Amino acid sequence: MFYYWKNFIGYDLVKNLFVPALEQTWLPNCDAHHYYSNSAEGMEKLPVHELFNFLPISYWKLFWKSRLALYYTYTNVSQDFDWYLKSDDDSYFIIDRLKSYLKTFNPNIPHLIGYRLIRNYPNGYVSGGAGYILSREALRLFATEAFENSTICKYHPWEDLGISKCLNNLGIPTKDTRTKSLKQRFMPFSTDEHFYSKVPKEWIFDDMQYTGFDIFHKELISFHHLKPSELRLIHGLITRINSD
Question: Are 205 and 117 a contacting pair, CB within 8 Å?
Answer without folding.
Answer: yes
